[in-house]
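step: validate -> pass
step: tokenize input -> pass
step: predict -> running
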Amino acid sequence: MLLCVIVATLCVAWLISYMLGKVKLSYCFKKSKYILFLLAFSQAYIAYQYIYSTSIDPESTLKELLLGISFCLIFCLCLLLINSSERIKTCLYIIVVSGVFQAVYGSLMTLSGTEYTFLIPKEGYFDVATGTFINRNSYASYLVICLSLGIGLMLAGLQPDTSNFREFVRRLLSAILSKKIILRLSLVIMVAALVMTHSRMGNTSFFVSMGVIGLLTILLRKRSPRATLLLLTSLIIIDIAVIGTFFGVEKVINRLESTSLQSETRDEVDQYTLELIEKNLLFGTGAGTFHTAFPQVRQKESGKSYYDHAHNDYLQFLSERGLIGFIPLLLCVVITFGIALSALKKRNNPLMRGCAFGCLMSMLAMSIHATVDFNLQMPANGATFMLVLALGWIARYMPRGKEKS
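step: predict -> pass
step: emit ->
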């Protein structure tokens, strides 16, 4: 697996630099020791499933173990290497650029009728944007992460409210003529692509998470509530009214309205997955074994489709890892959400607050979308989500002396 090789190479390079005294453990890395323990425990349990053959498919569990270790190492590398404000900005802009590339590529493929993923003809999801992803929901989930961090960057550039109208107009014109307009246009492009996916929960999770975290920001930070409210309101109104008119928001709405238990088989899949969980509640069937375990419990009501993933990340993690392996992962996200929320409330540095906002919005959106899809099973989304978790700790514990470095 290419991702595992790249991550392992980077870790070896960092360790060599550490032994030579060129780098040292960051403060953020030291503060996240409890999360590191939880992540290590979760991977140790998967190793136990493989070594002691408690997994019903040891080969798949081994692959999941290697991928899980890579994700944990990505989290560690982010904490160790993103150690200044400039590196935070660079990281966030790279994510935004990646999102813009996916948005432009996916939109062009759909509008032109070319219908390719990445140099490979599509086998499904025609007439909707999927970018380089196979599944439109995974694509939508990745765009939401990029949008969340991009909005965080926009918020980081906001100035405190002013009661002077001329000063307000001057700041508005300055923002339009500055490089911020490039970032705003990037967000517009990504929202357009998100709408073109016609992903029901992808679009829902984006607007719900932006509204909820935006409201929390206004309540917790009273320094610039009007500027924050104006930015978030413009994102919602302009994106729905303008972008949706041209790129098909009505199709998303129609899909939401036509959704019913009779037309969906996901609820049956969830029901049978719960039976699987009941039989393997404590230990699970083995990481990465859903495609092997599910046929043992499925019935004809779930349709004729082949399910290699549950359409619910929570249920899949729980069925494969059991409570022993699932609870540590859940705690990692819950604790990090609290840490990022603390950063949003307590940090005075605009970049740290913006970074915290992006992390909170990403985590909430992914948590909502995970109830109906398997986005975290995709390596690109999983790896990017580990970056989001790391940025939550960095936003809270980046030493003040390095905020200006």
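step: describe -> The mean pLDDT is 86.
step: cleanup -> pass
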